[in-house]
Design brief:
By secondary structure, the protein is an alpha+beta fold. It has two domains: 102 residues, no CATH class; 123 residues, Reverse transcriptase/Diguanylate cyclase domain (Alpha-Beta Plaits, 2-Layer Sandwich). The protein is 54% helix and 11% strand. It has nine helices and five strands, in the order H-H-H-H-H-E-H-E-H-E-E-H-E-H. It has a five-stranded mixed sheet, with helices on both faces. Helix 1 crosses helix 4 and helix 3 packs parallel to helix 5. The longest helix is centred in the first third of the chain and has 19 residues.
Amino acid sequence: MWGCDTGGFELCDGLTTGRRLREVWGRRSRERRAEPHEDWWTPAVDAVCTAVVEGKGLAEACGRLGQARARAGTTISGALDDLAALFDALGDAQPPFDMVTALAAGWEDGGRSREDCRDPLTGLANAAYLRTRISELYRGAPHPAAGGPAAHRLVAVALPEGLDPWRRTARLIVLGHELGRFFARGESLALVGRSRIAALAPADAELRERLPRLHAVARDEHGARVWSLALPPTCASALAMVQDLGRRTTDDTD
């Protein structure tokens, strides 16, 4: 077993050990990448921690981690930095070559699977899919101000700030399922940020009538906020709005 710099915490069997390693690893990874990257946690992270604690299966777990990072859009450099942060937490100067190879192979496999445009955790379409749908609206409308874009709204749902990654992910899975039942008329539903979901929906009377109920359910059952946005006159502005929506910590309503 590797030496472990975890503030005096001894590696031993049990969930507490895995949780502590995950905390230290996550902190080191954030320090290396100098950014919040709040989508750091995935089930693959727990698989790696379990493999370290049990002393077996680490190469396979690193492969899973590489796949998860690729599906999340992380570059190979970012994925390798993440792996380096793990071994830094374990007291090693650098990851063994076979772990690097396993991670890189997983990252390549995960990149090929991005064609399905779905987030692997929630099953929702990703932001790239939503941007494609919005672009189609503008291409199909000769006069966007009065055509398809003007007849649609972007409905955003945001979980509260400050949730730990595991609780946030669990809520997103449940919320995504419920929104899929709410938006059941062919609307485009997508995960636009690690705590935000957006739906491209027709701006008709039915949507206006149903939105207050969505507000109430999202607030009471998930502590989430709901607001809707009109699509701007140009496609470029609309795509920028989706990108901005995924990274904002405050919401702009109209």
